[in-house]
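Note to self: keep these together.
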Amino acid sequence: MEATAEPVLYQKLLLWEQSLESEEEEEEVSEPLVSDPWKPQDSSGKEIGARPGRWAKLVAALLLLAVGFSLAVWQLRTRGSSTDTLSSVAPPSSGHSHHPGIYHHGAIISPAATCSRLGQELFLAGGNVVDAGVAAALCLAVVHPHATGLGATFWGLFYNSSSGNSTALTPGPVQTLVPGLGLPSALPALHLLHTHFGRLPWPRLLVGPITLAQEGFLVDTHLARALAAQGTKGLCPLLCHNDGNPLNYGDRGINQKLAAVLRRTKHTPTPDFAGDVLLSLLARDLGLEGPSAKPMPTLEPALQLPSAEGILFTTPSPSAGPELLALLEAALQPKGHSLDPCPPPLQAPETPTTSVLATVDSSGSVLLLISSLNSSFGSRHLSPSTGVLLSNLVSKSAISTWACPLILRGPDDTEVDVLGLMVSGTPAVARVTTHALLSHLAGPQTQAQPQHQHQAQQGSTESPSVCGQGTMVQVAAHAEHAHVSSVPNGCCPFQGF
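Structure:
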């Protein structure tokens, strides 16, 4: 007589943590679904040597699980080691959002969306405000040749929140390559700034600009308008179609010669060598045995003006910095803020074309960079060996009409807030900057004039007004956040993280 099959008991699948009191009950009413996997059994539960199916499937499943886990770990490690992609190093979501222009860690604002994104990428790769700003400046040298470039003159103002020091980047005395052509100082100036204050390796900053110059960039509205207004004389074939007509908005521009120059400067050990790479090629183009002068950019302490509102920093002469501080010193007397109406426009034969950008982090470090070829497209002399447009900035007095960055650090006895301002596109830069700062200090009530009101989308942070047809960029560190805005609102794309 055959034995009656016994009922099969299945172990409970517990979806919560067991209490100590339930352990004895579990032992009494259950047994494993699969007994010792190393002892094969028949369907009645008796041990035999011919049915490995159940435990073999279990072992196979465990092996597949182990392989999948190993692949996941390898993928995470690979992503974590990369600094060239934004997604691999993006910080986790904080769980809340801010108004546009307010970020937890750092931000950049510039005239070109492509260059603002590049600055953000350098931030995310572990760079600081100097890395992001210098990389964006080199990017603008590629995509905005009407306003800046390797042939331009640069001024800068850097506030280091760690040390509390503010440093001015100055281009040195105005010099010429040949009559009418300004001596380029952009490469040694930017390399000098990065050497002293940057964090990432110099070659890392050049990756994005080289790629844009070599593979092409899209012509934006700023460049398209400049080409439509100025024509293409001296700019072909760089910025022209085959028929000689200028590139239009959305067309692709390529500058292979400029890409080659930037590649050659990737491994230059000092700022002097970076400048020499370009100068040797320019001298050959101009038929010179060698340049008669070399650029002499310097880093020096910024000018300071202590006041009840904090300490004001700006750049020294021959920029408009001294004029700016004189105007502010007169306005910030104990009698109160003297908020004069916007200054009347000056009669100037031509307003210099400038390019401004700014970076800020939530700790309060700020970098302001302003550059110019003097006129739109500078001298319109395009170097065939380098793809660089040379400036026609040959006069010392011309600089004071556009170079005027300003940083305000709040009083030491309060939460240290930092504000950075730059104005471009107006011949009365110092006076307009003064009005903008006083408007900011006076508070929201001064924003009521509709003709001067331009609110940035920054929540409770008020954006000062700007006089005339100029453009102003503003960055600030406030309440452990980085703020960026522009006047007119939306004229300068910004990015942050």
